[in-house]
Amino acid sequence: MNFSDDNAACPQQKGVLRWLSANGSRPPARIVDADDRMSANEAYELVSRGTGLLWRGDFHNARQLLSAVSRRIRRTRTHGLSVSEAFHAHRREQSRRARTLALVLVRLDPGHVLPLRRAPDVRLACHEVYGQANVPYVVPLRELFGVIGAHEWRKKGISIPALGARIHAHYGVFAPTRGEYVDLIAETPLPSVELAFDIGTGTGVLAAVLTRRGVARVVATDSSARAIRCAEENVRNLGLAGRIDLVQADLFPSGRAQLVVCNPPWLPAQPHSLLDHAVYDPDSRMLRDFLAGLPEHLRPGGEAWLILSDLAERLGLRSRTELLAAISGAGLRVVGRSDVRPSHPRASDPTDPLHTARSAEVTSLWRLASIGDRATRT
Q1: CB 144 within 8 A of CB 105
Q2: Please, is 62 exposed, middle or buried when counting C-beta atoms within 10 Å of its C-beta (0-12, 13-18, 19+)?
């Protein structure tokens, strides 16, 4: 991640400090100093007016202050709203909360050194996300916590039973913590396949599962350079570098394959940050473009495996009729479908504002083929 062109002027500093955010946060117009003497109420009043707080006190006190400010942000009432209205209200609150909490800031010195009392060593975690740092910079404290957490997840990895191994997700790359979609790929009957495409590969987990199942060669694409680097690392660690080719592309690589797999963002809504793009797909753009491009990239007799949750339907964001129309409109037909119920914690959390929809959610693997191709197995 390179330094942005945005500069934030900080009080009691000579000149300006660089602003840096891997998540796309924008610098505040005004910044004041803050330390252990500032109360949570005072901090909340300042950030509520859009003033950034450059923290100069104890690191652990900064964490407590951020939590206290978060508790003071008013939660949106969703009682009496339709499920669709509740979703949009929830998203607005998430966006407002993220903008407000991003105004608590810290300065890092060259080499990603955090000069606060009781501060952890964040040099490696920050280097993984931001790259080299030869000058001081300012970053939102909440983002820094995310960077630290992502570093720990990256070291620990996520166990993937279908691989008998761990996948290590980088910051900003969708982590396969919801294993049901991986299991669908691992358990759906697979014909003899010489070449498969994995569209939007992320960590490379689906490409790895396909390879371990016997696919001779997989070409995996992603539009994110960060995701490609992450997938390269995982593929190398799994000993699959000779069988999986990674290509940075918006969707498809060149050519045709016998099997094309895609797990697109599931919710047709506007992302509020760079990290949201793995979950939110405005107007189902990626989904529609994937379906539209499939006929040109499937070999005769080939199949596409589309992994999709019906949460969008349960939230009133996209109907099943619209999905089926997009499939048929692209010259495709459904030749089979496998379903699974999610087991992630939010599906059983009654305090979640979207609990009604999440508790009934179903994740499906849709098997698709060209309408003119009747050779596909059923």
Answers
A1: no
A2: buried
pTM of the predicted protein model: 0.88
Please give the chain's pLDDT, 378 residues, in tens.
Answer: 333 434 343 433 445 689 999 988 899 999 999 999 999 999 999 999 999 999 999 999 999 999 999 999 888 777 778 888 888 888 888 889 999 999 999 999 999 999 999 999 999 999 999 999 999 999 999 999 999 999 999 999 999 999 999 999 999 999 998 889 999 999 999 988 999 999 999 999 999 999 999 999 999 999 999 999 999 999 999 999 999 999 999 999 999 999 999 999 989 988 888 778 888 999 999 999 999 999 999 999 999 999 999 999 999 999 999 999 999 999 999 999 999 988 777 766 777 777 788 888 999 999 999 997 754 444
Is 273:23 a contact under the CB 8 Å cutoff? yes
Note whether 285 and 223 are within 8 A (CB): no
Residue 270: what are its φ and ψ, rounded to 5°? -80, 125
35 and 57 in contact (C-beta within 8 Å)?
yes
- CA pair distance 142, 70, nearest whole angstrom: 11
Q: Specify the residue for token string 């692209």.
A: 330
Structure tokens at 273: 């940050």
Please tell me the distance from the alpha carbon of residue 334 to that of residue 354, in angstroms, as a whole number. 29
Q: Which domains does the chain have, with CATH numbers?
A: 7-153 (no CATH), 160-370 (3.40.50.150)
